[in-house]
Amino acid sequence: MIEFLLNGRIEKVDQVDPNLSILEWLRTKMRLTGTKEGCASGDCGACTVITGTADQNGSIRYEAINSCISLLGSLHGKELITIEAFHDKQAHPVQSNMMEKHGAQCGFCTPGIVMSLTALHANKEGRQDIEEQVMEALSGNLCRCTGYRPIIAAGKDAMVEEWTPEASHPAASLCDTSSNPGLEGIHKESISLSLANTARYDAPVSLDELRSLRRDYPDSRLVAGSTDLALEITQQLKSLEHLISVERVPELKGCTRDGDDLVIGAATTYRNLRASLSDLWPAFDTMLERLGSLQIRNRGTLGGNIANASPIGDMPPPLIALGATLVLDGPDGERQLPLESFFHDYKKTDLKPGEFIHSVRVPAPKDNEQLYIFKVSKRIDDDISAVLGAFRLTIDNGTVSDCRLAFGGMAATPARALKAEAALVGQPWNDASVAKAIEALASDFTPLSDVRASAGYRTQVAGNLLRRALLASSSNTSENLMVTDYA
């Protein structure tokens, strides 16, 4: 059985298909149809809801998520707020400003937009760049008829207004994130969902429990944020027999320093790792802003992105460029593996039966080391890479003493450009040396043509990104050091 708060009231759910998404449960079981299904893939934002999760101190973090690709079992111990919480009650500043600024036409996408902006309003991060915050919050919400100008204007005005609802309001907790008494009575033990022995969902709360489950059920599928795995359910119409969630295992969450390494738990979301990783390597900051949408970053995890083994995943190339190490765990104990050795072929990895990714060790910068990350996609927000280049360079007195060049989108796996690296090491860091390294890229990769880009385009862009690193390194501005690109 799972327990959670739904619009201020305790909800208990048992004997339900673990493949059920939050969206489908809301619409078909609870008849809360204000939350819409647009794409069923986490792209359009019409299904956006707000979840509240307590941290170790009891404070609540409210986040906008895509309910179409979030599984019902992930709600245990959390608060869920839908657009219905604001029906026939005191209007939220986001609602009133959306009306005043004419921010809706057909209204299909409007509930998701309201929820994204309401989550932003609840968090009150205190940053001065209100427009930037609003743009980030709306990066995962598509509107086909209104145009974004009035929506952005509504969001900017709403952020500076206070909201003080009555205590009985279903979403009154958004005004006080210090705690939520309604969550305190929900048990913290592991949970399990099943339906007539046809499907099962386990959510262990310790590393030992996870190891035991993986030992007993090595063919089970691991799930964290489900931002990719759920597409098998919503797009391919699969029914997954056994899911084991790692979301509640504390040993797999958070960022810590161990000597010169930053250790990131595999179940740490992009939202939660961004500050620590960007403090260590600033080039990640802008790249992470373009990794999916805010809804995706609130749910997606580092371990999931790596284990998915997609050739166009955004995180593996820069981590490979840095020489990151994977810590793998399982029935036979822990082992460490260079990330670049983890990928064997398309969607094939070095994981043994029952194993899982425990954490990722990212080395700190050494003297004269620089990292450049450039992402090329068809749009800036909420899009998948056509090519992603990540370059870790050590420049001593104008000479490349060491380098690691990694690409996504150029092969069946994220991979290093070893011949291009060999062409650069020991050479001056200048146009002539970079030109020779670009020539070598043709021997490193034979990319495929697909819907995102042709093989020729990918080859040309990969070389241009390396040339851009040279141009960026000649500038003294931090903006250029963190630049990303789109096409």
UniProtKB/TrEMBL annotation:
<dbReference type="InterPro" id="IPR016208">
    <property type="entry name" value="Ald_Oxase/xanthine_DH-like"/>
</dbReference>
<keyword id="KW-0274">FAD</keyword>
<dbReference type="InterPro" id="IPR016167">
    <property type="entry name" value="FAD-bd_PCMH_sub1"/>
</dbReference>
<dbReference type="InterPro" id="IPR002346">
    <property type="entry name" value="Mopterin_DH_FAD-bd"/>
</dbReference>
<dbReference type="Pfam" id="PF00941">
    <property type="entry name" value="FAD_binding_5"/>
</dbReference>
<dbReference type="GO" id="GO:0005506">
    <property type="term" value="F:iron ion binding"/>
</dbReference>
<dbReference type="InterPro" id="IPR036884">
    <property type="entry name" value="2Fe-2S-bd_dom_sf"/>
</dbReference>
<dbReference type="InterPro" id="IPR002888">
    <property type="entry name" value="2Fe-2S-bd"/>
</dbReference>
<feature type="domain" description="FAD-binding PCMH-type">
    <location>
        <begin position="194"/>
        <end position="367"/>
    </location>
</feature>
<dbReference type="InterPro" id="IPR016166">
    <property type="entry name" value="FAD-bd_PCMH"/>
</dbReference>
<dbReference type="Pfam" id="PF03450">
    <property type="entry name" value="CO_deh_flav_C"/>
</dbReference>
<dbReference type="InterPro" id="IPR036318">
    <property type="entry name" value="FAD-bd_PCMH-like_sf"/>
</dbReference>
<dbReference type="Pfam" id="PF01799">
    <property type="entry name" value="Fer2_2"/>
</dbReference>
<dbReference type="GO" id="GO:0004854">
    <property type="term" value="F:xanthine dehydrogenase activity"/>
</dbReference>
<feature type="domain" description="2Fe-2S ferredoxin-type">
    <location>
        <begin position="1"/>
        <end position="86"/>
    </location>
</feature>
<dbReference type="GO" id="GO:0051537">
    <property type="term" value="F:2 iron, 2 sulfur cluster binding"/>
</dbReference>
<protein>
    <submittedName>
        <fullName>Xanthine dehydrogenase small subunit</fullName>
        <ecNumber>1.17.1.4</ecNumber>
    </submittedName>
</protein>
<dbReference type="InterPro" id="IPR001041">
    <property type="entry name" value="2Fe-2S_ferredoxin-type"/>
</dbReference>
<dbReference type="InterPro" id="IPR005107">
    <property type="entry name" value="CO_DH_flav_C"/>
</dbReference>
<dbReference type="InterPro" id="IPR012675">
    <property type="entry name" value="Beta-grasp_dom_sf"/>
</dbReference>
<dbReference type="GO" id="GO:0071949">
    <property type="term" value="F:FAD binding"/>
</dbReference>
<dbReference type="InterPro" id="IPR036010">
    <property type="entry name" value="2Fe-2S_ferredoxin-like_sf"/>
</dbReference>
<dbReference type="InterPro" id="IPR036683">
    <property type="entry name" value="CO_DH_flav_C_dom_sf"/>
</dbReference>
<keyword id="KW-0408">Iron</keyword>
<dbReference type="InterPro" id="IPR012175">
    <property type="entry name" value="Xanth_DH_ssu_bac"/>
</dbReference>
<keyword id="KW-0285">Flavoprotein</keyword>
<dbReference type="InterPro" id="IPR016169">
    <property type="entry name" value="FAD-bd_PCMH_sub2"/>
</dbReference>
<dbReference type="InterPro" id="IPR014307">
    <property type="entry name" value="Xanthine_DH_ssu"/>
</dbReference>
<keyword id="KW-0479">Metal-binding</keyword>
<dbReference type="InterPro" id="IPR006058">
    <property type="entry name" value="2Fe2S_fd_BS"/>
</dbReference>
<keyword id="KW-0560">Oxidoreductase</keyword>
